[in-house]
Amino acid sequence: MDLQGTLAAAQAGDQDAFRALVEPYLPGAYRTTLLILLDRELARDAVQEALVRAYASLGHFRTDAPFRPWFSRIVVNEARRLWRRERRQPTLLEELPDLTSPGEDSPEALLPAQESRESLWQALAELDDLHRTVLVLRYYQGLSESEMAEVLETRPGTVKSRLHNAPPAAPGTAERRRCPAALLVRQGSSCHNREVFLRCWKVT
Amino acid sequence: MLESHLTDELRRVADAVPVPDDLLPAAGLKRAVAHRRPWTMVAVAAAALLALGLSPLGQNALAAVTHWVMTYRVAVNPGAIPDPVVDVLTIQYGQTVEEKKDGVREVHRGVSVADLAGWPLPVYLGPDPEARAVLTETYREKDGTLLFTTLTLNWQVFMDGASKNLSYGMSRGWIPAGRLEEVRSGARPGVEIYGVEESQVKQQTVSIRGHEATATQVGPTWMLHWWHEGGGGHLVGNVPLEVLLKVAESMPRLE
């Protein structure tokens, strides 16, 4: 069955067709929500809920439109909704894999050290959901600004602003924490060696 | 070049986490979708009334509930609700603050379930002992001045399947700046619409079973708001005012 046929069957209520339709996108959907929510259980809840929503509203889906952005929009919206509702302490930060392994600690690799990585993840966790979502869509999914705008149902200019501007700092918050990860990266990109780069990422 | 390291880092961490194999329930989608629909619960309640042999009352209840649900379906259809509400609908616990432009802060906070006393919704939650409802208020402020407030009612249904913690928005209301405390104490608020020109908003006072209410129209959307001592409610829908009024009048409880 071709894509249009699968879509038509899914819209008619065929659960197997719906499964066939969404299954290729599930790993990406789960990992995207994982990065937005920074919690495995919440990510699973978000994807499950997104699937229910997608199934329920598939009848409204325009068959001449691409399916992936439509599904991504539902997934991302659900992740953000869940983040706002739950506001849990991110658990993913506690289980970051230790990346110290042969070949990865060479100066040329430019990979930040574990401490610096934790700073990065901490900075990500401190972002509001929209800033973090933008970063995830840009740097994990590799979407363009216009593609991100489509998923987030906003204007490309808004996405650009979120991508490059830091959110206002809460009172008493260290300057470092104002910076979204993109700023940290951009800051780091102006550095010419690993030490300076690491200093950019670390608490000063 | 270092931006690619952020990509690498995100992918390294995310891709190391195994994808659960139960994301898509084997046979639970239809059931999950059915549970999402509040009219399913309402229908169960109405059917229970009929089954109890309360025929006239049951039929009245069924008619009332059906009528209310028809409009409710319109109200919860995201396509029928202006954008701001979609975000507001499902924020429930704790407090979050969003920084908007020009120093405007948007605060979302959950309100105690006890504050729901008098809202009509719990009547419909009877069939599901695990269901619960929460009230959320969202307000925007600038320099300590309240700009607008939105009240939103949500409820959750806990399911034994893969999908759980489902939540639904019911309604919303705009309350003039500075009136939050009055609302909490049961005073009847006025209505203020945020985000549209004043000329686009039409308001009139209507009566629902003798209770005064405010009907507000913005484009095709009508909103009914009422607040009496001890409670109140809101109905929203892209339907004619007459339909909303009939729905409100058929509600078992107004306050």
Give the topology, please.
The complex is a heterodimer of chains A (204) and B (255).
Chain A: H1 3-11, H2 15-22, H3 26-37, H4 40-57, H5 67-86, H6 114-126, H7 129-140, H8 145-152, H9 156-164, H10 175-178, H11 181-189, H12 194-201
Helix pairs in contact in A: 1-2, 3-4, 3-5, 3-7, 4-5, 5-8, 8-9, 11-12
Chain B: H1 2-16, H2 29-36, H3 38-51, H4 55-76, H5 83-88, E1 95-99, E2 104-111, H6 121-124, E3 132-142, E4 145-157, E5 166-175, H7 180-184, E6 201-208, E7 211-218, E8 221-228, E9 231-237, H8 241-249
Antiparallel strand pairs in B: 1-2, 2-3, 3-4, 4-5, 6-7, 7-8, 8-9
Helix pairs in contact in B: 3-4, 4-8
What does this protein structure show overall?
The complex is a heterodimer of chains A (204) and B (255). Chain A has 204 residues and is mostly helical. Chain A is globular. Chain A has 12 helices and no strands. Residues 99-112 and 168-204 of chain A have low confidence and may be disordered. Chain B is 33% helix and 31% strand. Chain B contains 8 helices and 9 strands. In chain B, helix 3 (38-51) packs antiparallel against helix 4 (55-76). Chain B starts with a helix and ends in a 6-residue tail after the last helix. The model of chain B is unreliable at 34-94, 111-135 and 152-196 (pLDDT under 50).
Jot down its keywords.
heterodimer; A: 204 residues; mainly alpha; 12 helices; B: 255 residues; alpha+beta; 33% helix
What percent of residues of chain A are in strands? under 5%
SS class of chain A: mainly alpha
Question: Nearest-angstrom radius of gyration of chain A?
Answer: 19 Å
Largest sheet of chain A: none
Terminal CA distance of chain A reads 58 Å
Per DSSP, what share of the residues of chain B sits in E-state strands of 2 or more residues? 25-35%
Q: Please give the number of β-strands of chain B.
A: 9
Shape of chain B: elongated
Tell me about the largest β-sheet of chain B: 5 strands, antiparallel
* Unreliable residue stretches of chain B: 34-94, 111-135, 152-196
Question: Helix amount of chain A, in percent?
Answer: 55-70%
* Number of separate helices of chain B: 8
The end-to-end distance of chain B, rounded to whole angstroms, is 62 Å
Order of strands across the widest beta sheet of chain B?
1-2-3-4-5
Mean pLDDT of chain A: 72
| Quaternary structure | heterodimer
- How many runs of DSSP E, i.e. beta strands of chain A? 0
Question: How do the helices and strands follow one another from N- to C-terminus of chain B?
Answer: HHHHHEEHEEEHEEEEH
Please give the count of helices of chain A.
12
